[in-house]
Amino acid sequence: MFKDYTWLAIGSLRKRFLRTLLTLIGIFIGIASVVALISLGQGMQAAINQQFSSVGTDKIIIQGAAAGFGPPGQNAAGTVDKEDLELIKKVPGVNKAAGRLLRSVNLEYGTSVIVTFGASLPEEQEARDLVIDANNIKTKKGRMLKPGESNKILVGNHLWTIDHFSKDIALGSKMLINGKTFEVIGLLDKIGAGRDESIMVNEDDMRELLNEKDKFSAIIVQTNEKPAEVADRILRVIRKDRRQKEGFEDVTVSTSEDIIASINTILGVVQAVFIGIAAISLLVGGIGIMNTMYTSVLERTREIGIMKAIGARNNAVLAIFLIESGLLGVLGGAIGILIGVVLSKLVEFFGQGVVGNVLKASFPWYLIVGALAFSFLVGAVSGLLPARQAAKLPPVEALRGD
Amino acid sequence: MLGIFIGIAAVVALISLGQGLQHTINEQFEKVGADKIIVQAKEIGFTGQFAPGQLKEKELDIIRKVHGVKHTSAFLSRSGQVQFNNLQRTYTLMSIPRTKEEVDLTNNVHNMAAGAGRLLTHKDKQKSVIGYNLGNRNQFRKNIQVGDKIIVDNESFEVVGILKRIGEPTMDGAVILPEEDTRRVLKEPEAFSMITAQSEQGENPADVAERIEKELRRDRHQKEGKEDFTVQTSTELIASFNTVLNVIQVVFVGIASISLFVGGIGIMNTMYTAVLERTQEIGVMKAIGARNKDILLIFLLESALLGIAGGLIGSLIGVGISKSVEFGANATFGAGTITAIFPWYLLLGTVLFAAVVGMISGMLPARRASKLRPVDALRYE
Questions:
Q1: Please, are residues A139 and A186 in contact by the beta-carbon 8 Å criterion?
Q2: Nearest to A75 among B46, B81, B266 (CB)
Q3: How far apart are CA A238 and CA A236, in angstroms?
Q4: Of A77, A113, A291, B13, which is the most exposed, with the fewest CB atoms less than 10 Å away?
Q5: Where does the pLDDT of residue A299 fall: very low under 50, low under 70, confident under 90, or very high at 90 and above?
């Protein structure tokens, strides 16, 4: 029975090929743009989450409280220092802890000077491993810095792969940091999220360069227990040490989960706005289906009359038209998904050069299935009114209808 | 037609809001004036705290003496901890300079105006002016009033004024203090975050900016292209802002115009159906002497009318949408957040555009209608 209805619907769609095609275009443009935007948005979210998951959910970050955004430790009201690091190491649940010093530095090479981010690597092996592990630092060429080495520098990926300087940076090149000579011993692989623009030196070198005895920009902690609880304990210890009341701290302690959650909130809002605007075209496409179906009902008034005269019930007529409009939707959806996939792959391909590898298109199965189901729904809903109109036609009038 | 006007409404709403936003920002810049030059140290971050090429009193002196510079002002801004109502929050502290001319220039550059009480003068000590949010947004579970005391780094400051809303989050959440007090609470004896110079009337700000750059370069023994500071005129700042805004607008309007395109295809569909329905009619018209051109015109006009009607209704709905967004935004974020503007060319343009979309969509169906052979058309079912 259902099969017959489907064939009837397909037949009528094929008979009006041009109109079907135009209606389909309307739907598939809408679906394509929605699919493309969702897949890019999801892909970006996945890429960012992945970067953070390489950090691991067992990390806690302690830094000075700051108004607004900015790099860690910059523009902060409070500071953290070596003494805090020692305190934090003793908090139960803290497995490893490391301090980092991050500052803007002058980097001179060849005839060019840029201001970029300088980051320190701890001198102590265990702490250094934590930093390297949490930031996913890998050398592409050369080797990692060893503790105790001085006047040696690791260069971030963008600095040596993108033309920042008048000549190429190679292993053994000499660069000036704030006027002091350093030898390049390692060229880093991509890390992502802005950190590819930075250089890394050992902590002692960094302290000497900046004339900074014991401050850190941030302290990173790895824990074996529940991060939220350990974070709470750390904050309490710092509060006690500084004789600050609850709510009057000048540092913030956040777990990596907190950070991921706040980034996801922002991404979610951006995605919702884009998809909202794209969904308008889907609505317009749905109206196109409705239009086509109304016309189709009008055209086939007589056919409906005959069907009813030879015994078709209202339900059957309703089903035939609903299947027809649903098919329009599904077909449009399928083509739309294909186009959307191609579109976002193209954006990914051309965009990566500009934005970096955060831009990734991802197509989870639920996006594909969801888009198909949604387009069927759009088709069926748009067809509902016309189909009801068809189903309710009195056979006599329908037969007489011109 | 429903399709067309939804598309048009979306485009109109987005353009008018985008234009409104741009207008508001440009207006703020205009108040700042095109004669301002901004000097900052290059840094990853914004405060100058850890910049390698920090700006200090010495740089301010150099800039003051550059030919063509009328006034200068400099401020220090950085995060600080503010206590009120037994609660502590982190805000941006900002300093007000020590002479009257400098204070006037700073107020001008930041668009500062007192919404309650007064602004700080160069004579004030242990006094503070607070940003709009601190006085109106219950940030300490209640609003700070003029005359209240706030505590910044264990020092007490009397609030003498609350700023009018500026619309920029940093300034609306700022705590403004006299320079000496700011330096003391922030423990920053000499660095500035930004130096602003006003060029003399009749001087080209770009030339003055270049002179400032040259002088600073000479003082620091830096070659061109190797500076650790930037010098920008306010015009350059506006231009860079507008570029960003334009890109955002283009993306939004681009996505919205997809629905316009879909709407156009809807018109095409409707017109094809109309041609089919009226095949006999066309046959009759042709039989009594209508030429191909006449038929083409009839159908083109019909589709253009569809477009225009859709465009008109769409523009109306679009205006409605952006007015309600404006109303909603202003109710939530305070007056003057965004003003939707509808220049005449936007409205005229969209209606014309809708007509064109209608005509183009109608082109193919109309041609098919005009090419029908009268005999076949008359015979058609």
A1: yes
A2: B46
A3: 5
A4: A113
A5: confident
Facing A74 at nearest CB: one of B45, B87, B90: B45
Q: What is the mean pLDDT of chain B?
A: 86
- Residues A235 and A332 both lie in one domain: no
* Low-confidence residues of chain B: pLDDT under 50: none
Identity of residue A306: I
Domain finish residue from A231, A255, A279? A255
Q: Among A238, A255, A272, which residue terminates a domain?
A: A255
A300 and A391 co-located in one domain? yes
Q: Is the ipTM of this complex over 0.85?
A: no
Contact A149, A136 (CB under 8 A): no
The string of pLDDT tens digits covering residues A251-287 is 889 898 888 888 888 888 888 887 887 788 778 888 8
Q: Is there a single domain that holds both residue A244 and residue A112?
A: yes
Q: How far is B29 from chain A (nearest CA, A)?
A: 22
Mutate to test the interface with A, among B4, B76, B79 (most CBs of A within 10 A): B79
Domain boundaries, chain B: 2-20+240-379, 43-227
For B366, the token pair is 């109309």
Q: Give the mean pLDDT of chain A.
A: 85
Name the nearest CA neighbour of A227 among A196, A194, A264, A258. A258
Residue A391 and residue A277 share a domain: yes
Range of the structural domain that residue A213 is part of? 56-255
Q: Which residues contact A110 (CB under 8 A, 6 or more apart)?
A: A165, A166, A167
* B47 contacts in chain A (CB < 8 Å): 70, 74-75
A241 shares its domain with A326: no
pTM: 0.74
Residue B212 near residue B66 (C-beta atoms within 8 A)? yes
Q: How many CB pairs under 8 A join A and B?
A: 153
A231 and A358: one domain? no
Q: Any chain B CB within 8 A of the CB of A69?
A: no
Cα–Cα nearest to B200, from B62, B33, B13 = B33
Say yes or no for a CB contact (<8 Å) between B43 and A115: yes
Q: Looking at the 3D structure of chain A, how many domains does it have?
A: 2
